[in-house]
Please model this.
Amino acid sequence: MLYLKLYLKILFASLFLLNLCFAQELRLTEEEKNWLSNHPIIHIAHDKNFPPYEWENDAGIYQGISIEYIQRIEKKLNIKFKQIKQKNWSKILQEFKDGKIDVLSAIAKDEKREKFTLFTKSHIKVQGIIVSVKEYKALNELVGERVGVVNDYYWDDLLSEYNDEVEIVRVSNTQVGIEMVAIGAIDAMVSDLASVTHIVYKESISGLQFVPVPILQEKKLELSIGIRKDWPLLQSIIQKALNDISSQEKEAIYKKWIKVQKVSFWQDTRFQYNVSILGLILLVIFLLIITWNRLLKSQVASRSKQLEKANLQLIRAEKMESIGRLSAGVAHEVKNPLAILQMSVDYLKGEDNDETTKTILDDMDDAIVRADRVIKGLLDFSREKELQVTKGNINDVIEQSLKLIEHEFKQRNIQLTTDLSETLPDLDMDRNRLQQVFINLFMNAAQAIGAASQTKNNAHIIVNSNLAQLEDQTLIEKSEGLFRLNQNVILISILDTGTGLDKKSEKEVFEPFFTTKPLGEGTGLGLSVSKTIIGLHHGMITMNNRSDIEITGVEVKLYFAVKGEKKQ
Model:
């Protein structure tokens, strides 16, 4: 800041002396007056982004040091320049060369521009400086560094002479360059004192070093008013108007637009940048904590659900064991009296009976047969869970089971279709137990088709076997750890065209003593026993309504692990 104050004092003193040297009374010649009369429209252009010299504010109005000078020139000459607006300085220069713009309110003089521009004497002189975080004091300290300049500005032309020594980074405006210096994107920025102090004051940037430009032999930014090359009389007229501006007016202009103010540390851009980074880090940590807590909560909920499921399975297992013991006790208690009844009925049937007695004895015989069937089901349900395992092909068991109930299919006019894969691997199994399962499933399908005989469905049972890969995550979850995703299994499917299942039946179909058959036609133990047998083979059975849109019926699927396909 000490440098800035010293530069400003030198600047004001220079301007005061300059004004004394060139001040003179504004007197136009007849030729100059006639020229103004013959040129009522003079096009002028200002840089939209060159504070504090000239720039366009949010309301679209131009302001700054050079604008103040132009306004005073208009007043002294009693003229009004016609303003041409362009997006950037490079475009303004090009249109000035092409003759579409007559006057430039602020332009620095150099050899290239003298080819197409007439210049007034410089009315704005400002020290050139290097802006940086690290204080550069000599040319060799900038060698190899990234140095910013505004594209096509005076400093760009001068710095281009040192292109082999420094890496020039051209930016769109001075503010962008200073901000890049503040965050370390470039090492230094070459500009002028007034532009830099204006932006530092406006944006509250601190922590930057300002040093006179050593690589340019302490060059100053000297701004003049530029006039098209073929209008020398306008150059003379504008110069006279500039000379007529008093030193007091010039000093007031500079004090209005060039300010130096000490910036508090909390207004420092680097401080604000560091606080923003710290805040971002804290936000990320906070989000990670929230995410971690939610993950833990989700895991706790998942474990709780698993424990609840395991508890329900334990309760169900205890319930099934109790039912099994009860069933075995009931079966043994009833079996002997039932045998005595059967013997008595058989004895009475051997006597000479009338028709009424024969009918009664036949009804008693049927009742005993049904009771015997229930007792056998109870014994199957309650017997010890041991298998007589041998290695074999499950297709053989399916075919044998179908032969045993072939007459049942013919009696009900049921069409049978089989598609049994010839490449199935052998399975460790209890043939008799699995045959019991398949006979039960085939009989259930046949009875369901008989109940649906009044519908439009054809009487049809389809039996398939093949190797498959498990890809249904829901099915994996239902297996309760028996299978894993993408595991190879032997898949047996049985489809019928029966009545299908309602929603309640789909959920309870494997529960003991649950049946959809009429009273007296089923024990409700067949599917429950079948599920137990499949479980002893480390397999799984499912029963659902067919997914065919136009066909009602049930699809039963049995899954058996292929030898060598172990759980993970």
Notes: The mean pLDDT is 79. The chain is about 50% helix and 20% strand. The first helix runs from residue 2 to 22.
